[in-house]
Amino acid sequence: MYLSTCLLQINLYLLKQISFPFIIAFAASLILIPVIIKLVVKYHLFDKPDLRKEHTNPIPTLGGIAIVLGTLLPLFLWQTSFSIAGLYVLTAIVLIFFMGIIDDLKDLNASFKLIIELAVAAMIAFGGIRITSLHGLFGINELPVIMQYVFTIIAIAGVTNAFNLIDGIDGLAGGLSLISLVSAGALLSISGDHFFALLAFAMAGGVAGFLFFNYYPAKIFMGDTGSLVIGFMLAVLSIRIMQVYTIPVGEINNIPVIALSLVLIPVFDTLRVFLFRILRGKSAFSPDKTHIHHLLTNAGYNHGLVARLICFFHSVVLLQVILFSRFDQELVLLTSIALVTLITLAFKTIGERRILLLEKHYKFSFENIRE
C-alpha cells in the first residue's frame, strides 16, 4: 500500500518538475554529441586502443562533456537558489569535469587523479553530505564523527573509480548509470529532496541522450570526463539517500542496502579484480581484461549483448533489494552479494567454455586475450 502511494507521488512529481529537466538534458545531449564528434575528429582527439580497452580502432571520446553540460543546463534553469550542500556538489562536479577532460586529452597520472578525488570527497564530506549512520546494518547506527568523514571519503573516491573502471564496452557504463540515476531520483523524490532528485533525473536525461551514440557499435565514448563525474554523482546520491531516510519509512527499512545496490556491480567487480590481481602477484592497478564484461567479450560475445545482460542483472539486483525491503538488512545484503557472485561465476563459466570450444575448433590459444 505504501509503495503504491509512493509511486503515485512520484508520478505527480515527475509530471510537474522532473520530466522537463530530463527532457531538456536529453535534448541537449543529443544536440551536443554530433558537435563534439566533429570537433574530436577535426582535432584527432581519439580514444586509442590499449591493454585495458576492448575497441581495436580509435574512437572519438569526450562524450562526457555533453552529459555534464546537459545535466547542468536544466539545473540552472529550474533552481533559483542552492543550499550549501548543493553548492559543494556543483563545485565538485566542475572540478572533476575539468580533471576528466584533461585526463582524456593528456592521460593524467593515476596518483594525481586519486589525490584530486580524495580532496573533492573531503570537500563534500565537510559540506555536509556524509555517511552519518548505517541505520542498524550489522547493529551499527550513528557513527563517530571521524568515521563519518573516513567512510564518506573512501566511499566517494572508491565508487568514482569503480564506475570509471567498468566503463569498458559500448553502452555498459551508460546503461548501468541510467538505471541507477532513475532509481536514485525516484527515492529522493519520495523523500522530498527535490534538488538532488532533479540532479539525478537531469543527469539521467544527459546519459540517455549520450546512449543514442554510445550503443554498440559506439560512435563516441564518454571518456573519463563522463565516467568520473557519473561515478562521483552516484556515490553522492547514494550517500544522500542514506541521509534523507533517517528512519525506516513505511515498507522501506533497508536504506543502506538500497543505496549500495545502486553501485553494487561496479564496486563488487572492482574489488574482485583487484583481489585476484594481488593474489597473482601483480599490482592491483595493472592492466588486464578480467572485469565482468571481459568474461564474455574475451570469448567473442557481442558487446551489445554483454552490456544488455549486465544491465538486466543490475536491474534484477535493485528490484530484489526493493521487493525484500521488509526483511532483515543483513539477509538482503548477503543475498545481493551472493546474486552478483553467481552472475559473475556464470559469466566466467560460459566464457571459458566458449573459449575452449573456439580453441578446439580453430586450434590456437586464447591465453593472450585472457591476460
Present the secondary structure layout:
Layout: H1 2-43, E1 46-47, E2 59-60, H2 64-78, H3 84-106, H4 110-126, E3 133-137, E4 140-142, H5 145-166, H6 172-191, H7 194-214, H8 223-244, H9 255-261, H10 264-279, H11 294-297, H12 303-323, H13 329-362, H14 367-370
Antiparallel strand pairs: 1-2, 3-4
Helix pairs in contact: 1-2, 1-7, 2-7, 2-8, 3-4, 3-8, 4-5, 5-8, 5-10, 6-7, 6-8, 6-12, 8-9, 9-13, 10-13, 12-13
Identify the notable features of this structure and list them briefly.
371 residues; single chain; mainly alpha; two-stranded antiparallel ribbon
Helix and strand succession? HEEHHHEEHHHHHHHHHH
Number of discrete helical segments: 14
Global geometry: globular
Please mark out the parts with pLDDT under 50 across 5 or more consecutive residues, or reply none: none
**Mean pLDDT, rounded to whole units?**
88
| Amount of beta strand | under 5%
Q: What's the arrangement of strands in the largest beta sheet? A: 1-2
> What percent of the residues sit in helical stretches (DSSP H or I)?
over 70%
* Estimated radius of gyration: 20 Å
Structural class: mainly alpha
Described by strand count, sense and barrel closure, the largest sheet is: 2 strands, antiparallel
Number of domains: 1
Task: List how many beta strands DSSP finds.
Answer: 4
Distance between the termini: 51 Å
* Oligomerization status of the protein chains: single chain
